[in-house]
Amino acid sequence: MLTVDFHSSGDVVHWALTDDGVTRTVHSEYTPTLFVGDAVRDLYGRRGGPTPTPPDRDGLSESLTDLQAFLTGQDAVVDIQCEAHRQTFRTAPRPLLRIDAASVDAVRRIAQRVQQFNGPAEYTCYNVDLTPQFRYCLETTTPASPDRSVRSLRTLTLSIPPHKAGPDALSHLTIDGDAAGPTPEATVTAVDRAVRERDPDVIVVSTAKLVPVLFDAADTHDVPNFELGRAPGYTKLAGESTYTSYGQVGHSPARYTIPGRVVIDESNTFFYHEAGLPGCLDLVNRAGLPLEELSWASIGRVLTAMQIRAARDRDVLVPWQAWRPELFKPAATLDAADRGGTTFAPAVGVHENVHELDFASLYPNIIRTRNISPETVCCGCCDTNDVPGLGYSICEADGYLPTVLGPLIDARSRIKDQIEETTDDVERDRLDSASSAIKWILVSCFGYQGFSNAKFGRIECHEAINAFARDILLDAKTALEDAGWRVVHGIVDSIWVTPTKDREQRNLETVAAEISTDTGIELEYECAFDWVTFCPMRNSESGALTRYFGKRRDEALPVSEATLGDAIKTRGIEGRQRSTPTWVEDVQAEALRVFDKTRSPEAVCDVLRRTLTSLRNDDVDPERLVIDNRVSKHIADYTHETLTVAALKRATLNGTGLSPGQTIQYVVVNNNAHGTERVRLSYEDITRYDTDWYANAAIRAVESVLAPIGWREGEIRDYLTGTTDQTLTAYSERTDS
Amino acid sequence: MNTSQRQSPVELPELDTGLTLVDVGSDLGVTPVQSLLLDRVFAGDGDAYWVDAAGTAQTTRLRELAPDKRYLHRVHVARGFTAYQQTSLLDRLTGDRVTTPSVVVATGIDRLYRDTDVPATHAQDLLVRAIAALARVARVHDVPVVVTRSRADEFTRPLVNAAQTHLQWEDTQFGPRFTDAAGDVETLVYHLSDGWVQTTLAYWQEVLTHRARMHDASVVGEEATSGSV
Ligand SMILES: [Zn+2]
């Protein structure tokens, strides 16, 4: 299917692709279903241990019978009966109330009534908060993917620059990159024509607000029969909202949908940004979450969708809330579990002749090879000591989580192989998209297990994964040391080694292969470095775990200045951060080039000195000073008067306020000024910049390079204020050529 | 370092069977309560059970406080992250798996019921139910139950009403002090004349080492072999 519309009457309209358009099928008999069971305490209360042991019963309990009588005949309820299903992965099917609702909206209304009937926590509801299209696919066993063997999808993109707002904004709208019209009226007419001519299946909008804005403008300017969808009108699915969850304030923008077409909101999509439409469609197929819902879904939601499908295969219902508590455990065990992944603190400084080895998809592979799943860890039926350091048992029976992640791990490595092989650029792009969408699911599956509010998450799983990861890394360290290698750093799934002095070394690839066999998880040889430098933390002498840079042995530095190509790998320093202005990035890149060539802090500082001189002479194009920040929350929620806040306020002042998820771009013009005067937005006329502020940024970027060899900001400034350029003559020819 | 000059004995309030509400108006957070918990473990008839809903059950502080790490095997912790999980955990305290505790601690009892995902109409009911569950724990096991709340307000009034004892913990110039809300009992933990800073970890470590010795329980340096305490 392509998409599904839900009418308040309860009718459901199902759209599917045909070779020249779409078919529209109306289902008036579709009734979404939820289930109700007894109180939480039956599962997890007094008798609760590793395995829930609810009391035996044949039919409905008395309180469920009461509830049935209460709900029977209500408008929202079409049918209500007794049906047996499993409430958890570790319990047998039990008779529950099955309620067929009049519409998707009625499901939540019924669940709320159940919650209010009788005392609090008297009932457990299941299959309540599934998104409508996903639910429809599950309950009618409809494939979530559009059938692209029929034809490929047609897309139309409508964009307004983020800083344009107000009634005039529509004059700046583009259709697939081309200006639509000089006036709002012309724009609406052009959009209307483009939609009719192109008949798109997917409309990508820069912000979902465009949907009501276009309809309103069509009204105002009397554009007859204006439509975006394949049937009249549009629906607001969710209003803009602020919510508090575990102390974090979150925002979700309003969502709109139109009949017969998928709307993708560029300001509210993770996967479309990361993987494009091909990657999204690939994931729709794997996760079974329809395209429109996948477009705004978080990684957790996609993972949950997969888990829900796996649960359904086992006749397990989807709990409405995270009821399952963690088990009581000795503080000693908790203490061991809280240690997190193992890291070997890096020795700050430059290390010569370093090799990096990485475990491939470590966490997902641990889950798969160690059979980790919410129902297998501390299973209650096996009395074995399986998890290193914690003593938890892992069930002999196969867990469901490995069956969810296994196919993703395999698909990703298959796609990686295909990327290696293919010579077709279009094909490679498609494969890259698919691979990156899957990557996000795999890298997040571990953290998600630890979210106690995740539907199928479980803390003991999270702890077990961590314990295995620690064990595996320590085993690898021992094996490498036995083979004559010294471990200079290790973090989560990566290890850096260098030959141990006065020892013979066994071949690294051979050792890695042995470790792979022993651990059951492939340890890949990543690359050789001429040198690697581990940085200290900003305000301490100890090594920062994730700040380092190194020169790859087999890559030459590009000839053109200020780029590093693949020759220098950096992590955690300014050049890696998206907010860093290009100019600062270039200063750092140049510093790294000179460092590689000379290892001389003086030579690096001389480069910095010359750069600062041109900065002070106003020779830097303000465009290269633009700071690019993703807005993470609404202005009111920022607690400090940061530059980003100043920029956001300035944008609001200009009538172009931004929502979380959008990007704000600005130049610092006077950091000491007040409020909105500190910055200029990138689209404004910028004639000056704050020299001192950018000089400091450049010095910090250079400090990142030199701190590992003992030159901090103080040393750098001292050197800069010295009058002689000691190394200029010595190195200028090489660095300036 | 200062032990030889110590004038007064190190005191912690005697906990009676039943609910004891402890209000800690200080940055120290859970430390005084953890100290009360460990003190009961030293006295030694059974293990301690701790249900945390306040997000404070990091074991780091407990490990630092314990005069001997083996005590960590005798403190059983479970954290509730949702109101429903907390409710289940409180129920479990009277279940088959919890045998002869020496003390039960519930921190931040009200916190999760204030969360937005709990319907407002239910919040008060659930809190009252939680208090009743704790009262049952005290009755069934015949032990002291120490409770803390995240805020002292109208919402937690039922807790004040239900508690047999209401201790207020405060820093004073003479040292930290537990005061009975009724005003008649006062426990000055440890006189500060010899220069201890009561908010430091070192201070509480000192207090607990003394308490452990008083109960003839193990402290670091005295035990040479490992094993259960
Ligand atoms: Zn088992």
From TrEMBL, chain A:
Any signal peptide, and if so, which residues? none
User: What processes does the entry annotate via GO biological process terms?
Assistant: DNA-templated DNA replication
InterPro entries in the record: DNA-dir_DNA_pol_B (IPR006172), DNA-dir_DNA_pol_B_multi_dom (IPR006134), DNA/RNA_pol_sf (IPR043502), DNA_pol_B_thumb (IPR042087), DNA_pol_palm_dom_sf (IPR023211), DNA_pol_type-B (IPR050240)
One Pfam family, short name please? DNA_pol_B
The record, for SUPFAM superfamilies, names: DNA/RNA polymerases (SSF56672)
Top-level division of the source organism's lineage:
Archaea
| Keywords annotated in UniProt | DNA-binding, DNA-directed DNA polymerase, Nucleotidyltransferase, Transferase
- What's its catalytic activity? DNA(n) + a 2'-deoxyribonucleoside 5'-triphosphate = DNA(n+1) + diphosphate
Under the heading PANTHER family, the entry gives: DNA POLYMERASE CATALYTIC SUBUNIT, DNA POLYMERASE DELTA CATALYTIC SUBUNIT
| Protein's recorded name | DNA-directed DNA polymerase
Q: Which organism is it from?
A: Halorubrum alkaliphilum
Phylogenetic classification of the source organism: Archaea, Methanobacteriati, Methanobacteriota, Stenosarchaea group, Halobacteria
